[in-house]
Design goal:
Distance between the termini: 90 Å
Strand order of the largest sheet: 2-1-3-4-5
Oligomer: single chain
Largest sheet: 5 strands, parallel
Length: 308
């Protein structure tokens, strides 16, 4: 019987006990082996209902594996899944506490404000300067990040391409395979910006490792020095991303990205000219009296009054 990620010893424990288990207990065991992460989030009554056994049977199954009861079994199963399960457990805890919609709004906004302040307080001046210098001197910039980080990477690309000639977001429908091809063409004159926060995408970390091995400078936007991206980076900037309802608060990362791009705008040559050109190019699409003068618009058709 194969082990599974998280807590291999649990699979081994089940394998040893399987021959002596009752048929009902074997049903539970088979479901646990097939869905370890799912079971780790289930209260005993939900597991019993899903498998089609009684709550008492589910509890006796845990004792058959030499646990005192189901809570101890579930706690052991969670081992190794802590990072993956953290948002689930946080949400479970919040849902168990009564709160109004207004309370949730207030709590979420307070979390965001706390993240911003913690991020600002922890900024390292030298790292900020190095990050801006690396961006401005890079011949080409490639941005990698998957999941929510791909959306953040898009916002980073949107701001940086005002001041940098060649900025690419390597998150496409091909996912990491496209990024791997593009990254293989970069040199020490280029820059890769990697974005990843708990729960870290393994593709981002793997590609960052290849970038480092190839001698290409890497700027990491992540949460702490304990991040798997931190030791791979030439320079790292950290954002606090605590959230009571989600894996991360993207607002905290977005603030760091906006601060970074603001510093780039301040330091880049010709930033005022770039801002002026941008305004001129989008002016016909901005709402206001000037828009109709700069861009052809379809005439408004009015109904003719019927002749009497």
């Amino acid at each position: 019987m194969a082990t599974f990620p998280g807590n291999p010893s649990m699979a081994q424990r089940i394998a040893r006990a399987m021959p002596s288990l009752t048929r009902s207990h074997q049903q539970v065991a088979e479901y646990v082996l097939a869905h370890p992460l799912k079971v780790a989030t289930m209260p005993i009554d939900e597991l019993a209902e899903t498998v089609g056994v009684s709550v008492a049977t589910a509890n006796r199954f845990a004792r058959a594996l030499a646990f005192e009861g189901y809570p101890q079994f579930r706690a052991a199963l969670v081992l190794g899944f802590e990072t993956a399960l953290a948002p689930v457990e946080k949400l479970r805890s919040k849902l168990e506490s009564p709160a109004t919609v207004a309370d949730v709004f207030d709590s979420a906004l307070a979390d965001m404000a706390g993240n911003i302040e913690a991020t600002r307080a922890a900024l390292d001046v030298q790292s900020c300067t190095q990050a801006v210098d690396a961006i401005l001197k890079a011949r080409r910039i490639a941005i990698i990040g998957y999941g929510a980080s791909s959306w953040l990477g898009g916002l980073l690309q949107r701001s940086l391409e005002l001041y940098c000639d060649n900025v690419q977001l390597l998150a496409s429908i091909e996912s990491s395979s496209y990024a791997a091809r593009r990254l293989g063409r970069l040199t020490s004159e280029d820059l890769v910006i990697a974005i990843s926060f708990p729960r870290y995408f393994s593709d981002t970390v793997m590609l960052a490792g290849r970038v480092r091995a190839a001698g290409v400078p890497l700027l990491a936007l992540t949460d702490s020095p304990a991040s798997p991206l931190a030791p791979l980076a030439s320079v790292a900037l950290y954002a606090q991303t605590h959230s009571q309802y989600f894996a991360n608060s993207e607002a905290g990362v977005l603030v760091l990205i906006e601060a970074l791009c603001s510093a780039v705008a301040h330091s880049a040559k010709g930033s005022l000219q770039a801002a002026t050109q941008l305004t001129e190019s989008v002016l016909p699409w901005l709402e206001g009296s000037h828009a109709s003068k700069l861009r052809a618009t379809a005439p408004i058709k009015t109904k003719k009054k019927a002749a009497k």
